[in-house]
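Hi V.,

You were right to ask for the full record rather than a summary. Here it is.
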Amino acid sequence: MTRLGITVPFHDDETVASFGSRTAAANGIRTAREFSAHMGFLFQQIVDGDQNAINEFAYLTDRDPEELQSRALIKDAAMFRLRGERLSKFQLARTTARFCPHCLREDKLRGTGPEHSRGYGRIDWIFTCVRTCQKHGVFLTEATAPSRSTVMNDFVAMVREASDVVTIPDEAPTSGYERYIRDRLVGLERTEEWLDSMPLQVSLRVPEVIGGMVHHGRKFRFGDLNTRQLLEAAETGFGIMAKGKNAFIEFLVKHHDLVLERDGDIGGRRIYGSLYELLAHDNSDPDFDEIRAIMKNTAIDAFPIGPGNEFFGPIERRRWHSLQSAAKVSHVHYLTLKKILRSLDLISDADMKLSAHRIIVDAEVMDRLLSKVASGLQFKDARDFVNAPRVQWDRLVDTGYVKPFIERDLAVGVMATFARSDLDNFLASLLDKATEEFREDEDMLDIVNIRRRALCKIDEIMDLLLGGKLARVAIDPAERGFMALRLSLTEVTSKVRLDEHGGLSLREAEKSLRMSGAVLLKLIDRGDIQAEQGTNPTNRCPQTIVKRIELDAFEKRFISLYWLAREAELHIHQMRRVLDDAGIKAAITSDEVGATFYTRGDVGQWLKKGTAN
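Predicted structure:
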């Protein structure tokens, strides 16, 4: 095959199809298809990026095949590839002539070769999202109807046939979005790292949609927008996406506010409108999976959706539960759940007035609650489960050893409910304290009898048991739960006995003073002996006690007539006459306390006088 004598320049921003069209025109052939047929290959093969056809065309034009391949749209099943980037046919406009008249005019003035072959098709002109020429600040001129099939993709022929529509183009605003596309297509480095990290078709399409939502509502339709509105939407969306992932998430979050205002299922279209529609139904391309994942996770983190719901396919995790979703998965009526949540202070009084779908609770909190509700036991059933007598059960609950996870709250109509798992843990904490094998032993009793015979409180026994302070603990296999515990009465009694009060009981004081109880009480009433209240260390009962120092003080000051008579070996009446004859008067009379007492000082002086005489 002989190389062509007439060729044209291949521009850095030109498509290989345009290059083929201009080569045909420069060689005097009216259409690229006719030219290709003469050269032994099909122009459609050039259009579709066929490697063999491009190699032959490169040889004819004395070009590097890789250079031509780099600007070829390579057909890949239902998709196309450009420089390794996947593109949908819906993002391409190849059946209609699109161009900037100013650019073509400059091509003719500055180009070389036959004049009709100088104007070339820019890569960016074949993208539907490119609507302007940023170099000249105008909207692209576009033919009103698709080109004939014989000239389709044949740039020179398409422009020639569209010459009747060439008018003065409208001015267009500057577009950072289109400049970004143009730079990316020709390989220029940009600063939009997040956009650059995504496939080209994502960077082309998503900004248009999110900008449309900003200007025309979340459920806008592309078909309702004109070219200028589409350009405005793309520019706004690009401004958001160019700032990075966080800015895109902020855009998504701004659409959350009104979602819970009305009843009904919360789905992707309801939240994200046209953007969800595009990625869920209009497009299943995996290139958009990163955007889908961000949207899905943002929605899950904001709304009560989870397993059982769809959002770009089944949802695998849940961040929030609504009262409605919780009632659905638990089969517990939402009004019951609402009362329970209020009793646990998980919702406020104001929330009680909201509908079920608007009351939102952390999913982990709700799942734990639902698990407990499903296996929950009310007061009597919980007592039977633990197998504790009513008195002991009431004390266990009152002292907090067993706690309902739902407290009784008559204000909202909720009864106390105990979690089965909490009761299991409570019993395990008791039974795990066993220290020996069970055997018949009169000293080993159940807790009820231990409490009664040790004269102590149930919570004292529980503190000793749970604190690991008991050396003897067994489990009776013939019983279950709480009543299966066996403790040593001797050990418990020794550990619950109170500290000694440091005084003498009235009975002990009577014996020490060698007087009757009646006399002692009267002496105490008179204040001759000071008594105080103490607690019996064994039975915990209040007890009147007298300290030893008080008894010693009384005996040091007083002596009874009875003991004077015994010491003098006289009858009590004789002793009284002796004392009376000596002029010694009783300090405490029998009429006052039932016994007669003299001060040791008076008696001592009398005895000294008697000795002296």
